[in-house]
Amino acid sequence: MIDFLREAANVAPSKRQLAWFDRKFYAFIHFGVNTFTDREWGDGTEPESIFNPEKLDCRQWARALSGAGMKGMILTAKHHDGFCLWPSRYTEHSVKNCPVKRDVVGEAAQACREAGIGFGVYLSPWDRNSAYYGTPEYNDYYCNQLEELLTQYGELFCVWLDGACGEGPNGKKQEYDFQRYIRLVRKHQPNAVIFFDRGPDVRWCGNEAGNARASEWAVVPGELCWYGDVQTGPGPLAQEGDLSYLYNTDSNVGGLSNILYSKGLTFVPSEINTSIRRGWFWHKEEEPKSLEKLFRIYISSVGGNACLNLNIPPNRDGLLDERDVARLKELRELLDREFGQALEATVEKRDTGHPMQPEYMITLAQPTSRIKYVELMEDISVGQRVEGFRIEAVFSSGGQFPFFQGTTIGNRKICALADPFAEQNRLLDENKVKIDKLLVKITAARGEVSLKHIAVM
Ligand code: FUL
Fold this sequence. Notes:
This protein is an alpha/beta fold. It folds into two domains: about 1-340, TIM Barrel, CATH 3.20.20; about 345-455, Galactose-binding domain-like (Jelly Rolls, Sandwich), CATH 2.60.120.260. Helix content is about 25%, strand content about 25%. It has twelve helices and 18 strands. The protein has helices at about 1-10, 15-25, 35, 60-65, 105-115, 135-150, 180-190, 245, 255-260, 290-300, 320-340, 425-430, and strands at about 25-30, 70-80, 120-125, 160, 195, 205, 220, 265, 270-275, 305-310, 345-350, 360-370, 375-380, 385-395, 400-405, 415, 435-445, 450-455. The chain has an eight-stranded parallel beta sheet with strand order 5-4-3-2-1-10-9-6, with helices on both faces. α10 (about 290-300) links the parallel β9 and β10. The two termini are about 40 Å apart. Mean pLDDT is about 90; it is low at about 225-240 and about 250-260. The site of beta-L-fucopyranose has 4 residues, from loops. Beta-L-fucopyranose binds near residues 40 and 164.
């Protein structure tokens, strides 16, 4: 039991996973024939001629994303309909046979480089157009396309593999050779993280609604799948990394279990991906999610030991919709207002005699009653360890009280003590007493704890 806990505490991330965590917030771009047919899933029979984004401007996309503080863009180079946004040598079903004969992948990659953000690709394994689909040759076809993307467009920060596996044009399903896909990505883009339902580098959070778990563990049993439903996901109660799941690491859950992973504990953090609108592709009548909703998604994902991949779909002109761009700008302004300026403070780690339960005393330069957030980061380069913590306020007038109780910290935990959308904020509005110091007490951990960053906003 103790050995098992020690093992769990010491499962460490790779360099590419740490670099991915640093990106925090990046964008999905769903763009393709669906943009022009008003559908979410094309069936592969769409004529190339319908893809006609006459004002296509990938620089406009990249500018809006980087302006919103996003650190990357992942473009759907090919969605389930099989239509390719780059002139692949291996199919005619691509931009090369469209009225606008432009290499959208190349232009997007270049725009990201200019804007100083990362670029990544989504290449759907499910292909409803390819005649190879459902045969062993399809894996060759897929790898050929993947290799084009991996070698022609510079450095990629992410290769996003979709788990969907439906029927192809001849009614057959495909057995994907994921091991081969992964080897190919590693060979050409060793720094790119591979997203797939359960890793190997980043896993799906289990829903498309933007719901993060209340306690997010990056260390999970290798073969454990997400439990859930696409619309609502597992909800905050299924905590894949908690001990009850870890102890089941010998179980064999889910249909894909044997494809990718050996059993045992592995470091695979979760990505929260959702669209700024209801659909992944652009539909005229859809409106962006409210600022409040997006802010809550941001706090619970970026501030909940995950990264946020927010989809912003270009319209039929090939431009991001002004409504979405405006909402992104509002979000950036709100994030800057809430988190932009940390209060001046000093932090002292206190030895409690127990390395798994240290305390951190934060002394504010100016006593204040306006504390809104506390941001904590574990040094996860050695593993994720904190299971529980508490924050107590220490008043200059004397007295102390606990006001925040949390579970996991991981890469980053944003503890929200105030809510910009609430009419009243207990701590800010009612408490006129000034807070002098804050005490962060780690109450439970799987190993020795080291917080590498503490900020008070
Ligand atoms: C899913 C797809 O079926 C959706 O269309 C979308 O691309 C989403 C991100 O992944 O598996």
